[in-house]
Amino acid sequence: MSFWWPDAPGPEQTVPELLASRVQRVGDATALIAPSLVTGGEVAWSYRELADRAAVAAAVLAAAGVGPGDRVGVLVDNDGAAEAHVAYHAVHRLGAICVPLNTRYVARELAYVLGFVMPAAIVHGPRFLPLLQQASVDAVLLDVSTGLLEAAHPTVDAVRVTGDDDADWLFTSGTTGRPKAVALSHRGSVACGYQGVGAWGVRPGSVYQSFAPFFTSTGSHTNLLGCLAAGCTYVVEPEFDVHATLDRMQRHRATSVFLISTVLALILDRRTPAELDAYDFSALERVCYGGQPSSQAFYRRIRSEIGERWGVELVNIYGLTEGGTSGIMLVDDDHPEALERMGDNGLSIGRTGFREWVGVEVRRPDASPVKPGEVGELCLRSPSTMSRYVSDLAATRRALPGDGWLRTGDMATTDDAGFVYFVDRNAALIRRGGLNVSSVEVEGVLLEHPGVAEVAVVPLPNEVLGSDVRAVVVASDPAPTADELVDWCVQRLADYKVPARVDFVESLPRNGMNRVIKGVLTGDPDALA
User: Which residues form the AMP-dependent synthetase/ligase domain (predicted)?
Assistant: First the structure.
């Protein structure tokens, strides 16, 4: 069959088939540019080299006892992204399940996850060995920095898997409560790849760059599989750094990058327009962003200073792990109208699915679509959607009611032009005296104050009302007082939405994707679950 992006998705049903197809079609093209723990520097591998290394690593894993259906944990930071990618494909070659592990876990968290997963082996970076020992792991440990995945072993035949078999278990980010294990099939993972093509705007010859950690769904799924489906180059950053990130974009002539909102703010704050103009971003075509909501002034600034000044597309991305990843995006052509329509719920997350087959609806509890201005639950339909929450039938039934749609748990609304607006996590709505308060709305109002750099709004227990509103603020210079911010809100919000308490912190707690972990701020990890 001759299917090939952008004409149509290919015929592949599994991740190994997708890799083999790209070796056949663009085998000598650069697949990956990434940090390596073996070389201590940056490596560049073609699709053929990546597949060959994965075949060798599969033999190593097989010798360690890994077989079909086994789980293999990958506990590697982006400083070993090259080895993580090899391990990812090696695991699938054996018919096993890849489980990226959060490199920010402490021993207690890691012990819980590993007890749940029960891995046959764990591929890890050297600095995680003490943590693994502290977590009392009962699995074969393979340190990738020693070149173990490149050791000489008799080759093993690839195990045949089907599209319905589990490819990966990805843990949700845990921004609200205890993370769940999301099972993603091979067929769904291939679909995720073709959807990533649409989100990142990549094609054969593109160069896509991202700092997303491997353990996130963005790092190990949307990025990895999107670039694999496109047959393009994936540049993995060891971490975000304003200067290094911009230098890397110039050096590798990136055509598309994913920089979350807080990162864009750092770039604009730490580099002057003249310094940014000195870079050669002539190859750059698209800047994707998303994550924490921000102010209208911020969005207008990135539209002016990045979109227009750099001459690139701006695309706001919304997706979630359970979607596999499927999602919705605010495309560049829609930005001007969306900026004019900004209101209480901030900037629209878009009205365009990652690909034409991704369905997006905002629904009432009876599954009927809402009218413009009405709040409902954002639902997605896509072949990439998870097959289940592992060992959690009740949660699976809530999220996947059986009509082909995924209930995201995110509350949203629409307007008369079809734009979708994120309102809040359904479970994260602050319920005060029978009234619902959107933390996103309150955060948006506070972010308009010049003295607020960052803010997270969370519930504060109230014995009478159930909850009050609490704002946790990272202040700008000069810093405002708590009373000043409360007065600011009094003038702009209904009385029940005004924070009863304002606290100041040096920084907000964040997970690997730089999203605020609100459960830490409440002192109750399940308060927003």
Answer: 21-389
